[in-house]
């Protein structure tokens, strides 16, 4: 009893020391203390992305802080998927001296306006879900740990060609969003390189609810495959309407489709959707299993790849903060750029010279209402 009591006293004395010495983000007890700002799509039609991301971050935060080397306080702001709201949130976070780095925003469209501001202000920022071309190239302070479309889409198309002997495709994409446009460019390029005949290219806008005109045209051309670049909300409705019109060919989708929300919205109509993913929850891997178990216990549902990428992202931030040795924006940027061979639930991770990702995706297909490995 005496031993237990004295170690308790020692513990609380240490805690007191750390709190006293942390004003500039360093503590005499050794733990680097920092506020990390988060800009996430938490309300509005794409809120499931932000929910998964913030859940993943909070789970990682609990574990990281429990280890005692780094103490992270998350300052979470909602962007509602809007550029102007994301920018306002970023300005608020950047104006707070205690914010050493930022995670987010969720959409590439948002990062396109937030990234240059963060870079200009010397605040390191890391996207966990921004997959459009050119994000880390915005500047030295801009990073991402999300699998870019440029790696995901060619892998999905290859698999679809191999499995269905596809030769003719139709492309459908949102032309008012940085990510859906970039996904389209990648799809078109990949289709051309792989010798596929592109029968038609159709467009839509955010929030559109009727795709009859585009789908009627596509149906008449009889493609073997439809390549669609959309966020989940529009994507799921497109698949639902396509199946109702009797279009039963497979779809290849980009990262926006890689969400269980597609199945929740479209139900059986989502069957036949192919996506490439940086992370798969059914993988035989101890780290993945532990994460899935903890996440389910905490949130009552299975994590998706948005949760997984966010979880690893905070660990990468924590590792960089630890290596930086202080809660300083420039030191954090330099330490992030140095991250090599980080071992997380996405596998081994390094940034390339531009702060972009090198990764092998896994191709999934929705069958019987669930994502399965497409072997
Ligand atoms: N990956 C997309 C983007 O970059 C969405 C799905 C978050 O905007």
Describe the structure.
With 375 residues, this protein is an alpha/beta fold. It has two domains: 32-147 and 284-349, Response regulator (Rossmann fold), CATH 3.40.50.2300; 150-277, Rossmann fold (3-Layer(aba) Sandwich), CATH 3.40.50.2300. The protein is built from twelve helices and 14 strands. The strands form three sheets. Strands 7-6-8-9-10-13-14 form a seven-stranded mixed beta sheet, sandwiched between helices. Strands 2-1-3-4-5 form a five-stranded parallel beta sheet, with helices on both faces. The radius of gyration is 22 Å and the shape is globular. The N and C termini lie far apart (58 Å). The model is unreliable at 1-24 (pLDDT under 50).
Percent range of helical residues: 40-55%
What is the number of helical segments per DSSP (H or I, 4+ residues)?
Answer: 12
Q: State the shape.
A: globular
Unique bound compounds:
valine
- Biggest β-sheet: count, sense, barrel? 7 strands, mixed
Q: Return residue spans where pLDDT drops below 50 for at least 5 consecutive residues.
A: 1-24
Rounded mean pLDDT is 93
Please report which band the strand proportion falls in: under 5%, 5-15%, 15-25%, 25-35%, 35-45% or over 45%: 15-25%
CATH homologous superfamily of the largest domain, by name? Answer: Response regulator
End-to-end CA span: 58 Å
Radius of gyration: 22 Å
What is the CATH top level name of the largest domain?
Answer: Alpha Beta
Strand order of the largest sheet: 7-6-8-9-10-13-14
Number of strands: 14
Structural class: alpha/beta
CATH architecture descriptor name of the largest domain:
3-Layer(aba) Sandwich
């Amino acid at each position: 009893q005496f031993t237990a009591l004295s170690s308790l006293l020692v513990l609380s004395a240490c805690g007191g020391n750390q709190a006293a010495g942390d004003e500039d983000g360093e503590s005499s007890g050794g733990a680097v203390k920092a506020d990390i700002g988060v800009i996430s799509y938490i309300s509005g039609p794409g809120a499931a992305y932000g929910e998964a991301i913030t859940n993943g971050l909070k789970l990682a935060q609990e574990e990281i802080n429990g280890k005692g080397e780094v103490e992270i306080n998350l300052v979470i702001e909602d962007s509602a998927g809007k550029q102007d709201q994301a920018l306002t949130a970023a300005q608020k976070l950047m104006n707070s001296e205690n914010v050493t780095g930022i995670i987010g925003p969720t959409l590439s469209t948002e990062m396109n306006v937030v990234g240059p501001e963060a870079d200009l202000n010397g605040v390191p920022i890391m996207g966990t879900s921004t997959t459009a071309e050119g994000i880390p190239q915005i500047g030295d302070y801009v990073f991402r740990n999300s699998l870019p479309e440029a790696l995901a889409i060619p892998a999905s198309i290859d698999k679809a060609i191999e499995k269905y002997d596809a030769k003719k495709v139709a492309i459908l994409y949102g032309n008012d969003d940085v990510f859906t446009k970039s996904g389209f460019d990648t799809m078109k390029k990949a289709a051309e390189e792989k010798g596929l005949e592109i029968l038609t290219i159709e467009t839509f806008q955010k929030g559109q609810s009727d795709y009859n005109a585009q789908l009627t045209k596509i149906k008449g051309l009889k493609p073997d495959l439809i390549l669609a670049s959309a966020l989940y909300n529009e994507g799921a409705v497109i698949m639902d309407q396509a199946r109702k019109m009797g279009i039963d060919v497979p779809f290849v989708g980009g990262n926006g489709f890689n969400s269980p929300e597609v199945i929740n919205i479209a139900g059986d109509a989502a069957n036949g959707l192919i996506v490439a993913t940086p992370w798969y929850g059914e993988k035989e891997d101890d780290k993945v299993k532990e994460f899935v178990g903890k996440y389910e216990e905490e949130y009552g549902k299975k994590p998706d790849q948005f949760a997984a990428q966010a979880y690893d992202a905070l660990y990468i931030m924590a590792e960089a903060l630890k290596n930086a040795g202080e809660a300083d924006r420039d030191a954090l940027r330099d330490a992030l750029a140095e991250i090599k061979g980080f071992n997380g639930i996405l596998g081994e991770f390094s940034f390339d010279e531009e702060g972009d990702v090198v990764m092998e995706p896994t191709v999934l297909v929705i069958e019987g209402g669930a994502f399965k490995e497409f072997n």
